[in-house]
Amino acid sequence: MVERIEALSEEHLDECARLLMVTFNAEPWNDKYTHDTAKKQLAWHLRVPGCVGLVAVMDGVVAFAIGYREPTDVGEVFNLSIFCVRPDA
Prior knowledge:
Largest sheet: 4 strands, antiparallel
Structural class: alpha+beta
Number of helices: 2
Distance between the termini: 9 Å
Strand order of the largest sheet: 1-2-3-4
Number of strands: 4
Radius of gyration: 13 Å
């Protein structure tokens, strides 16, 4: 069970970068993230106008989601960019 949900901030970047690496460097994605490239990608998202990020925390980051709200001709839409869940959660 998740202890709390927090807004994703720069304080979470290191732990979220590790989770992103563990998640997306594995099957089926087989990406080649390093801690640095994962952290840079997450930091970039935090600077995007309309960024929304949430972190589930219980003994560290269990999961996170990040994306952005985009204005369109029919109102705002939310684009989910990254969603990660710790494999043991």
